Every structure is written in structure tokens, then in C-alpha cells.
Amino acid sequence: MWLDTTYEVNGGTMATETRGEAAAKDEGKAKPAAKRTSPALFVRQVIAELRKVIWPTRRELITYTTVSLVFVLIMVALVSGVDWVLQKGIFSLFS
After folding, report:
1. 43 with 49: CB under 8 angstroms?
2. Model-level pTM?
3. Position 74 in a domain
4. Sign of CA pseudo-dihedral 71, 77, 79, 81
5. Distance between alpha carbon 61 and the CA centroid of its chain, in Å?
6. Is residue 42, in this structure, part of any structural domain at all?
7. How far is it, in rounded angstroms, from Cα 68 to Cα 75?
8. How wide is the angle at C-alpha 89 spanned by C-alphas 85 and 93, nearest 5°?
9. 1 inside domain
10. What string of H, E and C letters represents the secondary structure of 33-69?
11. pLDDT > 70: what percent of the chain?
């Protein structure tokens, strides 16, 4: 037994959902095997994608690096501070 449910989507466009035996039949089908690509094709695709990248300017790169380093230093200080406080608390509790 199967059930069709219809939903309104985007102001009138209809979408149908099938449940039950009909949906179960689709699950049993084997998916076609993905074709393997050659290493040369992979390299060509990587180069094509890298050409699409918008590289940061020198100023942006310096800004991003500085922000990242400052954030890491703040997090190191925070974790070290919490560790030190917990260490002192536990040592005073058990000594």
C-alpha cells in the first residue's frame, strides 16, 4: 500500500511525496557505479577551479593572518587561565 501526499510549495507549485511499497521498490535498485576519472583529468579540474578563486590582496592577507593569530593567542590565554584556576582549586581541595 502506498500513499501520495501533496504539498504546496512556493505559491502553488506542487510537490508529491510517495510512501510505502512504491517507495520501497525504488530503494532496492542498485545505483550505477561511478566512473573513475584519470589523474590527468583531476589535475585539469583542480587547475580550472583554482583559476576561479578570488585570491586576497596583500593587505587582506596580513589582516586575516593578524586576526587569526590574535584569536589563537586569546584562546590560549583563556584555556591556560581556566586550567590554572582549576589546578589551584583541585590542589587546594585535595591537599
Report:
1. no
2. 0.50
3. yes
4. negative
5. 23
6. no
7. 11
8. 170
9. yes
10. CCCCCCHHHHHHHHHHHHHHCCCCCHHHHHHHHHHHH
11. 68
